[in-house]
TrEMBL record:
It comes from Rhizobium paknamense. This is Flagellar biosynthetic protein FliP. It is a multi-pass membrane protein. Plays a role in the flagellum-specific transport system. PROSITE patterns: FLIP_1 (PS01060), FLIP_2 (PS01061). The keyword Iron-sulfur does not apply. Its main location: membrane. It is found in: Cell membrane; Bacterial flagellum basal body.
Amino acid sequence: MIRYLILLAAMIAVPEIAQAQQFPSNFLNAPVDGSVAAWIIRTFGLLTILSVAPGILIMVTSFPRFVIAFSILRSGMGLSTTPSNMILTSLALFMTFYVMTPTMDQAWREGVRPLLDNQLSEADAAQRIAEPFRTFMTRNTRDKDLKLFVDLANERGQTPVVEGKVDYRVLVPAFMLSEIRRGFEIGFLIILPFLVIDMIVSTITMAMGMMMLPPTSISLPFKILFFVLIDGWNLLVGSLVRSFS
């Protein structure tokens, strides 16, 4: 089931599908050649993906690392609502599409387009569309996290590795765990300079006897100025993109 959902996710996410002139006009029309079962499965899967797309986006893409790093950045600067959640989420979303473009393009060429052209069956297309995502997740999953879920699957009597390939029930949670860990690692490096600024400002205000003045109200402008002077957004986004294999 997860393979079919990944297939349909790529069908929606690939930019080429958004072009109306390339999308088959009869994709949602009931066929007249007797292949009603395939049409029902395809339509049901397409409608299902519209409701579970956010979950798939979190499970098999680079989205968690981006959104965690951006959230920690905002918290470290002491800004509770700026940038807003919508801006941070939108930026993380478009950066995810940027990072995942090679994977989605490969999935489109090898699985989605042949499926829409009726050159492959749904099962074969799902298997082909899943391989680029499997490769991406494998490259960005720590061996320690993968081993953890493989061992847990073995303890439950499951078979996590089939024909040299790790099952998605094992690979996806291991990938998510690795992404969350890397997001916190990057967040620590981001928040460290702001912590130093807070400590310096707090020490100065205490030495001057300004007990009633919150140090954060003074350090906030300096943190924003520091982040702007070093071109922080450029450095952060560039580092996040380069952190993916």
